[in-house]
Write a structure and sequence with these properties.
The complex is a heterodimer. Chain A is of the alpha/beta class. Chain A is 33% helix and 26% strand. Chain B has a four-stranded antiparallel beta sheet with strand order 2-3-1-4. The chains are: A alpha/beta, B alpha+beta. The structure holds adenosine-5'-triphosphate and magnesium ion. Adenosine-5'-triphosphate (ATP) is lined by residues 11-13, 15-16, 34, 36-42, 194 of chain A.
Chain lengths: 216, 282
């Protein structure tokens, strides 16, 4: 479903990733673990095709990095959900509208939007805060909103780049519970983190990366 | 793509940079009313010129020593000159009659004898566009034997022509300024909106928003600015038009279609301005 084959990305300063090969099967939970600067975010970027591999290729569903046209990238991203360490919510609209945005982009109808947004908010346990603004929420709650926004369109794969990085351990554990619950219901997840200890406590496959390369 | 979203985002863009948006609307309004005003002036000059053109004629006084045959021959020669449309003879007697009609019998009676020479009234077959040409024809006629003097009253026309040319040049230069100025203010405003929304726009891209989805509110905002500016300009021109009509009755009015042209021009400028900003900054 998602597959990286001998992927290399080099930045101008010579750093980057090389010979990255792995795949994520439907319904799988995968942790991409490595120290800061190892190349985790870069790997994710090749999956949502923000970066083109200099060598190798990435396959996401029907899309292949070798053949994808620039105009198709938005449509590829609609098949993915993406969550970041810094939440990236729209500060100017409330929780409901933040989550609804993903569906507005694809031109869903209002009734449909309402139904699915409420469901996604229930999935992350925030139904009661639908009309709050982002700055009225705790960090953990904001991340739940971001997760709801990422899953509301039922993506092939949820990409999470250090989703617990800004949170204290307890709140982080809450976010992990949400992610695992979502995974249990069938959404595959690829989560990048430097926190090896935390990841070990959860079920899921671990892929280690260091200095831009996979570690056996 | 849904309209609700586009309108919401457009309103949001306005909120984020309303000062520069107003500035850009007012600038466009100012430029367009200036342009409309010049257009009004040059339409009136053209109209007036047309009226004068219809009376484009030379008066050719002829020597009193010519007999009828010579007069007929001279008439022939003059009418063969290129640019001359029609030559009609005004005899001394006819001239005297017209003089009396205009100035009264008494004045004429005081004179010993009829001092008025015979003349031809020469209608030209060209428009008054070409001052040089008219002078050339006059000079050509004056060369004919038997012609004493050629008189014409084209000074107003020539002056008017100069103003008309000035108005035309001014409006072209102005159009250039209007275009550049409007493009500048609109694209500057859209640039501000883009930079205020930078974060949001990058997140939009991550959730799969197409370029069109991101751009259309910006384009709409630019076009609306142009339209708003054009409407204001239309309003201003309407009042100027009314005022002028009261001061100088008989002036031409701005035709209603010109408002539509103004509106289209405004929209187009706004559209182009935001397109420029998008190409550069998005
Ligand atoms: N835009 C960029 N320009 C230049 N070099 C970059 C860029 N992004 C990343 N790099 C370099 O590529 C390498 C991998 O970076 P990446 O962000 O993928 O690491 P990471 O594992 O996500 O680190 P972190 O845990 O700190 O987020 C690093 O050495 C980094 O300096
Ligand atoms: Mg990173």
């Amino acid at each position: 479903m998602v597959e990286l084959q001998s992927v290399r990305v080099t930045y101008a300063n010579g750093e980057g990733i090389d010979q990255i090969t792995f795949s994520v099967a439907p319904g799988e939970m995968v942790f991409l673990v490595g120290p800061s600067g190892a190349g985790k975010s870069t790997v994710l970027k090749t999956i949502y095709m923000d970066k083109q591999p200099a060598e190798g290729h990435v396959v996401v569903g029907d899309y292949n990095s070798l053949f994808i046209r620039k105009s198709e990238v938005p449509f590829l991203r609609r098949k993915l959900g993406i969550v970041f360490q810094d939440f990236r919510l729209f500060a100017d609209r409330d929780v409901f509208d933040n989550v609804a945005f993903t569906l507005e982009v694809i031109g869903a109808r209002q009734k449909e939007i309402k139904r699915r947004v409420l469901r996604a908010l229930a999935d992350v346990g925030l139904s009661h805060k639908a009309r709050k603004m982002p700055d009225e929420l705790s960090g953990g709650e904001q991340q739940r909103v971001a997760i709801a926004r990422a899953i509301v369109n039922e993506p092939l794969l949820l990409l999470a780049d250090e989703p617990t990085g800004n949170l204290d351990p307890e709140t982080a554990a809450g976010i992990m519970d949400v992610l695992l619950r979502i995974n249990t219901r069938g959404t595959s997840i690829l989560m990048a983190t430097h926190n090896y200890d935390m990841v070990q406590r959860y079920r899921g496959r671990i892929i280690k990366i260091n200095n831009g390369r996979l570690v056996a | 793509m849904n309209l609700r979203h586009v309108l919401k985002e457009t309103a949001d863009g306005f909120r984020r940079a309303w000062g520069s948006c107003l500035l850009s609307i007012l600038t466009i309004a100012f430029f367009l009313s200036l342009l409309g005003f010049i257009a009004l002036v040059s339409a009136n000059i053209d109209h007036f010129k047309q009226t004068l053109n219809d009376r484009l004629q030379l008066q050719v006084f002829i020597s009193g020593t010519l007999d009828d045959q010579q007069i007929a021959a001279l008439s022939q020669r003059i009418s063969r000159i290129s640019g001359v449309a029609k030559v009609s003879f005004v005899s001394r007697e006819l001239a005297a009659e017209e003089f009396q009609k205009e100035f009264g019998r008494e004045l004429f009676a005081a004179l010993e004898e009829n001092p008025l020479p015979s003349s031809f009234v020469v209608r030209l077959g060209i428009t008054g566009e070409d001052e040089g040409r008219i002078k050339q024809i006059a000079a050509r006629i004056e060369e004919e034997a038997g012609v004493d003097e050629v008189v014409y009253h084209f000074q107003t026309l020539f002056t008017l022509q100069r103003y008309a040319r000035l108005a035309a040049t001014t409006s072209w230069i102005l159009l250039l300024f209007v275009t550049l100025g409007s493009l500048f203010v609109v694209s500057n405003n859209i640039r501000l909106v883009i930079s205020a929304r930078k974060q949001i726009i990058s997140t939009m891209r991550l959730v799969g928003a197409t370029p069109g989805f991101i751009r259309s509110p910006l384009i709409l905002e630019g076009a609306l600015q142009g339209a708003a500016g054009a409407l204001l300009a239309g309003l201003a021109l309407y009042f100027v038009d009314r005022l002028l009509a009261q001061l100088l009755p008989g002036l031409l009015h701005l035709p209603p279609e010109s408002l539509i042209v103004l509106l289209l021009l405004g929209c187009f400028l706004g559209f182009l301005g935001s397109l420029l900003a998008i190409k550069r900054y998005l």
